[in-house]
């Protein structure tokens, strides 16, 4: 099967007597590799916008004063701003992830998810520029226990992705409902580009993107689903992903009955 790394310790504890201890450190090594990969990825992700930004700055520094028209200045400014915002988004998402990781469960209060979903939808329509068809199906009385800010970020991450990865005129259906067996479910269904089955298990890895170029172009940091997965775990919920390449996807957050209630 798989390669294992064994640590072997030989201790002498008497004349002619030895004790051999073997320890399987495969897991320890794996963690260390994950950590190293992560640091390498963060550096790479930040270096790209930084390189572009310093490139612009150098070009500007080399220009004789007064050689740029107001229009050109504005264009340069816009392009540099974009790179700075990109770095800000990455750093903000990394901070969110590390905060989420530092405590296991989310203690909060009763969250009116219907309201949270409606707010996300309003922002989603603006982001989409009304280029998509939105269908909503919201059970307003259905609540879950949790931290509202965290839930709001999970809700809007899934919606933002649906908008990003669905061509204009596509349909995005947002639902918040109780299932027959008492679970509460938030789901976002899109008629977008879809995901090949071999990519699905890797989507919640940090910085994993199926199409790097497309994700960057639409402002993605590659951390949204990693954050969403963490928020789900902290709320004892499950993040479910169903997708068909070229046809569309359904991303759902399913909350257990024990964390679900109904406002009266
Ligand atoms: P990003 O910031 O790149 O969107 P995410 O962690 O939110 O990062 O998502 C990871 C990847 O999963 C995306 O880059 C994209 O390839 C894929 N993905 C996420 N949501 C969808 C969707 N609704 N349709 C198709 N692909 C998606």
In short:
It catalyses: ATP + protein L-histidine = ADP + protein N-phospho-L-histidine. The chain has 264 residues and is α+β, with helices and mostly antiparallel strands. The protein is 45% helix and 25% strand.
The N- and C-terminal alpha carbons lie at a distance of 56 Å
| Total number of beta strands | 10
State the helical fraction: 40-55%
Low-confidence stretches: none
Per DSSP, what share of the residues sits in E-state strands of 2 or more residues?
15-25%
Strand order, sheet with most strands: 4-6-7-9-8
Chemical compounds bound to the protein = adenosine-5'-diphosphate
- List the secondary-structure elements in sequence, H or E: EEHHEHEEHEEHHEEE
Summarize model confidence as the mean pLDDT: 91
Characterization of this structure:
With 264 residues, the chain is an alpha+beta fold. The strands form three sheets. The protein has a five-stranded mixed sheet with strand order 4-6-7-9-8. Strands 3-5-10 form a three-stranded antiparallel sheet. A hairpin with a 2-residue loop joins strand 1 and strand 2. The structure holds adenosine-5'-diphosphate (ADP). The site of adenosine-5'-diphosphate has 24 residues, from helix 4 and helix 6. It catalyses: ATP + protein L-histidine = ADP + protein N-phospho-L-histidine. Keywords: ATP-binding, Cell membrane, Kinase, Membrane, Nucleotide-binding, Phosphate transport, Phosphoprotein, Transferase, Transmembrane, Transmembrane helix, Transport, Two-component regulatory system.
């Amino acid at each position: 099967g798989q390669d294992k790394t064994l640590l072997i310790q030989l201790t002498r504890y008497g004349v002619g007597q030895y004790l051999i201890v073997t320890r399987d450190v495969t897991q320890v090594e794996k963690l260390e590799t994950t950590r190293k990969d992560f640091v390498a990825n963060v550096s790479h992700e930040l270096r790209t916008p930084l390189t572009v930004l310093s490139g612009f700055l150098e070009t500007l520094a080399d220009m004789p004063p007064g050689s740029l028209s107001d229009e050109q200045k504005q264009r340069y400014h816009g392009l540099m701003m974009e790179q700075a915002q990109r770095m800000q988004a990455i750093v903000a998402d990394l901070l969110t992830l590390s905060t989420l990781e530092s405590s296991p469960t989310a203690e909060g209060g009763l969250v009116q998810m219907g309201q949270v979903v409606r707010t996300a939808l309003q922002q989603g329509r603006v982001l989409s520029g009304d280029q998509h068809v939105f269908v909503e199906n919201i059970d307003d009385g259905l609540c879950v226990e949790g931290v509202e800010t965290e839930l709001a970020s999970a809700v809007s991450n899934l919606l933002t992705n649906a908008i990003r990865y669905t061509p204009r005129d596509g349909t995005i259906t947002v639902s918040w409902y109780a299932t027959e067996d008492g679970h509460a479910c938030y789901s976002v269904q899109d008629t977008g580009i879809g995901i090949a089955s071999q990519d699905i298990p890797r989507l919640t890895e940090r910085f994993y993107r199926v199409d790097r170029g497309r994700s960057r172009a639409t402002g993605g940091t590659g951390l949204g689903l990693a954050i969403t997965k963490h928020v789900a775990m902290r709320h004892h919920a499950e993040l479910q992903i169903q997708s068909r390449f070229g046809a569309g996807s359904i991303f759902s957050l399913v909350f257990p009955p024990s964390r679900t209630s109904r406002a009266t």
